Amino acid sequence: xxxxxxxxxxxxxxxxxxxxxxxxxxxxxxxxxxxxxxxxxxxxxxxxxxxxxxxxxxxxxxxxxxxxxxxxxxxxxxxxxxxxxxxxxxxxxxxxxxxxxxxxxxxxxxxxxxxxxxxxxxxxxxxxxxxxxxxxxxxxxxxxxxxxxxxxxxxxxxxxxxxxxxxxxxxxxxxxxxxxxxxxxxxxxxxxxxxxxxxxxxxxxxxxxxxxxxxxxxxxxxxxxxxxxxxxxxxxxxxxxxxxxxxxxxxxxxxxxxxxxxxxxxxxxxxxxxxxxxxxxxxxxxxxxxxxxxxxxxxxxxxxxxxxxxxxxxxxxxxxxxxxxxxxxxxxxxxxxxxxxxxxxxxxxxxxxxxxxxxxxxxxxxxxxxxxxxxxxxxxxxxxxxxxxxxxxxxxxxxxxxxxxxxxxxxxxxxxxxxxxxxxxxxxxxxxxxxxxxxxxxxxxxxxxxxxxxxxxxxxxxxxxxxxxxxxxxxxxxxxxxxxxxxxxxxxxxxxxxxxxxxxxxxxx
Length: 509
Ligand SMILES: [Zn+2]
Prior knowledge:
The chain folds into three domains: about 5-25 and about 35-340, 3-Layer(aba) Sandwich (Aminopeptidase); about 355-415, CATH 2.40.50; about 430-500, no CATH class. Mean pLDDT is about 75; it is low at about 1-30, about 35-100 and about 450-460. The strands form three sheets. The chain has a twelve-stranded mixed β-sheet, sandwiched between helices. By secondary structure, the chain is α+β, with helices and mostly antiparallel strands. It starts with about 25 loop residues before the first helix and ends in an 8-residue tail after the last strand. A hairpin with a 2-residue loop joins strand 18 and strand 19 (about 495-500). It is built from 18 helices and 19 strands. Bound molecules: zinc ion. Zinc ion binds near residues 139, 143 and 240.
């Protein structure tokens, strides 16, 4: 979309199709664009696939712009019933009119929009092209706040046209689930990104796709197309919301490049979620060496949640070097919004326990828990068909589940001292992990060694970044120590745990 077709007095609805009639690929790399929403990359996903229906499904599945207002209004009304900080009726009416105006502009399509600064592009011929910054919203279909926040940022960029290093792309996650306001259709898309599943989707014809296979295929096609660009580094910011009330926070694999971005966001950092859940999109992207962070913005339909996400995007864009603080006119307010929302909470929490849940297990969280709430060992947290579920340790509750779908019931974590983060940064900078295998009870897992039978077959052949820790010998050897060196627990077996070193990616600076 050329700039002159995108007036600065923003339209209230963007056309769902490519209005210029040009081949979509030729639009993307034109200089000087804010491109709010076209789905050409989804089409490219179909290339090489024997799918007679042509481009992968977006056009026929994309609801018209009139769809979203009703969908978001329904969500708003649903929230009104149990929102403890209920506003007055007139406030609510005004707010929901504001939301409706905003939601009228929400394009429910794979690429929500893009932004590049034309002058920076010209300058980039002599300097760095800056990073590729990808925002993803709605990986869970009942979490549209991230889509709305991305759109707010894109609209403001389009209007203010600040200097911008690199390229911003905003992507919608589970489109079909967003359409239904459900977390997913058949499988949780954010548990779908194991290497095995990605390989399976790549190798199977698109006709064999489950709904979430199809989402993954299309999203992956967008990522891969974007990663072909000139930017040497990619940052993925995945925006989520939760069913329980609570402050915003960041989740990520603990790599130094992720820390660089997270330090720009004054909200708690949660480490270790990717050790206890498998197949998140962030885990996959992190494994590919990219910066990958998720922000939990707050309760699904709380109106503050969109603002938290928006502030997180601005702060992360500045931390990534895409924008300078002085080029975001209200940057201090955006940062303060997050700081206030997270006031009094620990800056780093490590996940130590995941309570799993299976379908029809009768899981029910005791009402009233919110993110970061302190609990003591033995406190009653939930019930299921087998009886009471009590806290196995003293710590803080994270992501208590108050909704029907999902196989995570809740998590428990504990504060980590920033001192240890400093220590681990120094250890990693020194590559001190190279001597870890000299410790008693620790040995390297070499490709082809018997220990690889515990490993993912797709990874075992090529990697020598694994350690086998014999827990009988190294019994005083806590997982936290391995974390300091940049390892994460992968495969606990009887007497043995395999740790794998995280991909640290490119250093900053
Ligand atoms: Zn989510």
